Amino acid sequence: MQQLRDSVKEVLMKLIINAVAEEVLLNISITTLLEQRDIAANSVAVVVNGVITPRSSWSTTICQANDEIEIFSAVAGG
């Protein structure tokens, strides 16, 4: 059982997503991260480590261990 736990830890990494520590799969892109959370890509902005990440690069932006990711929902109104 310990061996299984150790092997699972080898494929997971910690991210801080909207100020909450979470474990996610290694080599996950921003696009996949949003898809796994059922977040519509056309309605959010993503900031990685304090830098706005353009939507055009989400599929090629691979999260790194301990990245701080903020996902902001677009809000209409005045």
UniProtKB/TrEMBL annotation:
SUPFAM superfamilies: MoaD/ThiS (SSF54285). Pfam families: ThiS (PF02597). It comes from the Bacteria. NCBIfam families: thiS. PANTHER family: SULFUR CARRIER PROTEIN THIS. This is Thiamine biosynthesis protein ThiS. It comes from Shewanella mangrovi. The lineage of its organism: Bacteria, Pseudomonadati, Pseudomonadota, Gammaproteobacteria, Alteromonadales.
